[in-house]
Amino acid sequence: MQAYTVEQVAEKLQVGRDKVYFLLRTGQLRSIKIGKLRRITDDQLKEFIDSLETRTPRP
């Protein structure tokens, strides 16, 4: 399992650090805390991305 910093996730998603913190604060993106360090695992990142996929409506 890989764990990323907020900065690394921001770079991967091509958004700012503030946006990642907003996603964490609102519960849209989950994370783990190790002491004072906040980390986002690859599973948590995948779960977030999967939640964004739009489904094609059925006719």
TrEMBL record:
Molecular function, one GO term: DNA binding
Xref: Pfam families: HTH_17 (PF12728)
Entries under InterPro entries matching the protein: DNA-bd_dom_put_sf, HTH_17, SinI_DNA-bd
Coiled coil spans: none
Signal peptide extent: none
All residue ranges annotated as the Helix-turn-helix domain in the record: 4-51
Name listed for the protein in its UniProt record: Transcriptional regulator
Organism listed in the record: Actinomadura craniellae
